[in-house]
Each structure stands twice: as C-alpha cells, then as structure tokens.
Amino acid sequence: MGELDSFEILPEHALTSLGPNGVPRSGWQRARRASRWHRPYAAILLLLDTSACVLASVTARTFLDTKTNEVFEKNPGLFTLITFGLLPAVWLLVLWGHGAYDRRYLGTGTDEFKRVVRASWTVVAIVAFAAFSTKTQISRTSVGAALVGGLLYVLVLRYLARRGLQYVRTRFNLATHRMLLVGTLQEALEVHQTIARDPAAGLVPVGIHLIEGYSPHPSTVTPVPVHAGRDILSLVRELNADTIAVCGSASAEPVELRRLAWQLEGTGIDLAVAPQLTDIAGPRVHIRPIEGIPLLYVEEPKLSGLGWLFKNVIDRVFALIALLIVLPFFPIVAIAIKLSDPGPIFFRQPRIGREGKMFKVWKLRTMYIDAEERQATLDEQNESDGLLFKMKNDPRVFKVGKWLRATSIDELPQILNVLAGEMSLVGPRPLPADDGDFLGDVRRRLLVRPGITGLWQVSGRSDLSWDDAVRLDLYYVDNWSLVLDLHTLWRTIGVVVFRKGAY
Fold first, then answer.
1. Which residues cross the membrane (predicted)?
2. Fewer beta carbons within 10 Å, N or C terminal of the chain?
C-alpha cells in the first residue's frame, strides 16, 4: 500500500448527519455509552457504600454515652431513621457529589479513593453544622466513631470491589474498554505496549488506524490488526470498539482532532488523547486553557517540603515499631541460619544510596559463605539482564535461605538502614556499587533514598526485566507522593503473602 499523506477523520458522507449548526443531531440527546460495564459496577458500589454507612452507625452505638443512649432507647425509631436512612443518604449524596461514582475514576488509579476521603470531610462538616444549628447534644465519641468508621468501611469495601473487578478483567477479559489506537505505527505500538503492562486497568487495544507513513507489510507481525485509509467510525463499529485513543503526534493535529470529537458526539464512543508523555502521573500534569488552546504543563517532581518531611517521620516511626515486633523472633531465625551453614548471621554489601553516597545494606544471610567465590562459575546461568545476578534455583542458597527469601524475611534487617537514614520504607531498590554502572537515566534514581519495598517489588520483583525495573524506579522518582508510598506499602502485604516473584 502506498504512503498515507492525510489524517482525514471526517469523510464527506458523514456531513449529511450534521444539524444546521454543525453538531450531529444525535448529539443533542444524552448518548448511551458504548461501554456499559460501569453501570452494574456503580450499582454494586452503591450497595456496598450503604452497607458501610449502616455498619458504621451500628458500630458507633457502642460508643454512646448514657444520656444519649437513653434517648435512643426511648425512641428506637429515631435510631433506625438515622442508621438506615439519614446517614446513608447523606453519605451517598456527598459521594455522588464528589464524583465517587464517575466511571472515569472507577477501576484504576487513586482518584476514586481520594474522592471518598474528600467526601468524608464534607460529611463531617455537614454533621457539625447540623448539630451546631439545631443545638443538638450528641455524643462526640459516637459521632467520631460513625464518621471514621464510615470512611474506613467504605474504603475497605471499595478496595475489595476493585480487586474483584480486576480479577474479572484479568481472568475473564470482561468489564473492559475496547480501544482503537489512532496514530503512526510506532506511536500506536508504544501506547499498546504501555497499556499491556497493566491488564487490570481494563484497556484492551483491538486495532490500529494509521494516519501517515507506510502500511506494514502483510507478513509483519503486530499485536493487533493494522488498518489504513478507513473511515474511523465504520472501523470502530466493525471492531466493536468503545474508545478511540489518539496517540502521539496525531493529537497535535488540532483541526482533525476537533472534527473527530464532533463526529463522535451522540455515538457513545469515548475519545482519549495519549500525548507523547509517558510514565508521568496525573498530579504533575495540569491543563491550563489559554485563549482556547489547552496547554499541558508538567510540574517538577516534589522531592522536598512538608510531604517529604512527613515521609521521613513515617519511615522512622514505622521502622521502630517494626523492629520491636520482629525482635523477639530474631533468635529463632538466627539459630536456623547457624544450623544451615556456619558463618555470620548477617550479610552486608556496599550499595549506592541517595546522591551517590555509599552505605552497607543489612540482610539476613541466605547463601553459603563461599557464595561470592562460586558466582563466577554460574555467570552463564544468570537469568537477569541487568546489574543483579538472579537464578530461580541458585545452588548457593541453602534451604532455610530459600524460605527466608520467599517470605522476604531476609530483608527485615534493612530496618536498621531506615533508622540510620540510609534507606526508606519505600523507594527504588538499592543496587550494588561494584561497577559504577549508574550512567544516563539510571542515575536519576539516586535523587531519593533506596527503599525496602517499592514499585519493583510489588510489580513482579525478580520476574521483571532490567528495563522494566529501571522504568518503575524512575516512575517512582518522577511521581513520588505520600499516597503512592502508602499504596505501595499496602500492595507489599499481598506480594509478601503470595510470594510473587521472590527467589
């Protein structure tokens, strides 16, 4: 096929469906979305949120003082009205007002949970104002228990609902968005590769529509069918797609992009724009319209300030608590290591920390004492394509050591590095300083302290390639936030329990 030299997305025959003002007639009515998985899912969230509010009210009753409890005992209908009527209704209305049921935020990302937290503050303000304006004498403890409990119950139940949704997506390929990628072949394949990394997000590319360049040879293998010179709307219907993603340089064609948006009005098909900005999270990206031009601003990473100070405090406090918890079990682990192989209990190795400062990381020894000398004979069996040596069945690891690695217990002594300020609870993984291979983009990970856990650990650990591991570390540096740290710590629990990628 010849070279494509145009990006014609609104063919002449489509103009016949336009109204007198250039807007599709069907666009005047509310379109039914081509993707409708969010409707039953939102209904499930409504039931779960209602249950959470009722459960919070029942829990709060145990904190009622004697005077307030007598009021409810004399008027049981009042408690029933508040528990099963007023409080759930207020919660649901406020959640809806904050967009907690908006399909754009369901199923992926942290925006959904942020909106739930913001809604809880609004509910607190409403309850406080109602009590003040009516001069109602209520138990502050019970009100606090109801509001805090409601927030926690809603977050937990929504998290479980999301896990169920992600399971359905990854296991049965349901509740997904079928996407048609529009752009050059290289740009579309890059977006496809990025989307494919996270099947739980529910984005499934089903085709590529080329806007320029040469159509690939029929023998060229692509992950999805590639089309050229087709009417986009007819192609979307043919592929049963519900989303069009305009990739890379195609998004820089303002006239064609605007026409495509007009053409999709009333069709129920979503339009997404994937600019040439990868691995940059939403908080750093801001759209500021200037005279009708949406300028995309990318802020610098925030690696200082009050949030960064709070991270350091959390590191020390959590590390101290964890040390007190694991200390009683340490003698048992130490004896097991000694019985497996005579030698030191700890293994210390030089690693590169923040700003290139060298430190020695603490780990429980899991290998025989001659492990480093034996590595030269195993280099050909290295299963890692990066700086670290990895083998699933490394003969240098003794039996107890394999169990310590699988359960990540061997990493616990790094709590001492956290207390010393050399490491953090969450951050890029600490890499050895043998060869000084921190060149190019890899050096950027030295802007923060390495962590006991991080995006690498919760995304596959040793099963990941070196490039993917570096990409995740750089993503963390570029998009750090307290929410990202807390989310990573939460995901670490599941990774440790199910021993994902540990060897």
1. 41-64, 76-96, 116-132, 138-161, 317-337
2. N
For residues 503 and 500, give the distance between their C-alpha atoms in angstroms, rounded to a whole number: 9
Q: Distance between CA atoms of 463 and 445, rounded to whole angstroms?
A: 20
The residue written with tokens 């320029």 in the block is 212
More confident residue, 331 or 253: 331
Q: What is the pLDDT of residue 1?
A: 42
pLDDT at 26 over 70: no
Strands 293-298 and 285-290: antiparallel
The answer to whether the beta carbons of residues 276 and 447 sit under 8 Å apart is no
Query: In the predicted model, is pLDDT for residue 161 greater than 90?
Result: yes
CB 143 within 8 A of CB 130: no
Q: What is the DSSP string of 86-140?
A: IHHHHHHHHHHHTTTT-GGGSSSSSHHHHHHHHHHHHHHHHHHHHHHHHT----H
Strand 358-364, strand 346-352: pairing: antiparallel
Determine the 3-state secondary structure of 206 from DSSP.
Answer: strand
Render pLDDT for 210-234 as a digit per residue (tens, 0 to 9).
987 566 666 678 899 999 888 888 9
Residue with the two structure tokens 């939403």:
282
CA distance 480 to 424: 13
CB 265 within 8 A of CB 26: yes
Over residues 357-362, mean pLDDT: 92
The DSSP line for 11-76 is -GGGGGGB-TTSSBGGGGSPPPPS--THHHHHHHHHHHHHHHHHHHHHHHHTT--HHHHHHHHH-H
- Domains of the chain listed by start with CATH number: 3-34+176-276 (3.40.50.720), 38-172 (no CATH), 306-498 (no CATH)
Report residue 4's pLDDT band, with 50, 70 and 90 as the boundaries. Answer: very low
The crossing angle, in degrees rounded to 10, of helices 140-172 and 87-97 is 50
Other Cβ atoms less than 10 A from the Cβ of 130: the count is 13
Cβ–Cβ < 8 Å for 351, 430: yes
Q: Average pLDDT, stretch 392-401?
A: 86
Position 131 scores a pLDDT of 75
Write the DSSP assignment of 262-327 as a string of letters.
Answer: HHHTTTT-EEEEE-S--S--GGGEEEEEETTEEEEEEPPP--SSHHHHHHHHHHHHHHHHHHHHHG
Average pLDDT taken over every residue of the chain: 82
| Cα distance between residue 11 and residue 26, in whole Å | 18
Confidence of residue 423 (pLDDT cuts 50, 70, 90): very high
**Percentage above 90 pLDDT, the chain:** 36
* DSSP 8-state secondary structure symbol assigned to residue 471: H
- Per DSSP, the residues of 273-291 read EE-S--S--GGGEEEEEET
Q: Which residues contact 276 (CB under 8 A, 6 or more apart)?
A: 187, 248, 249
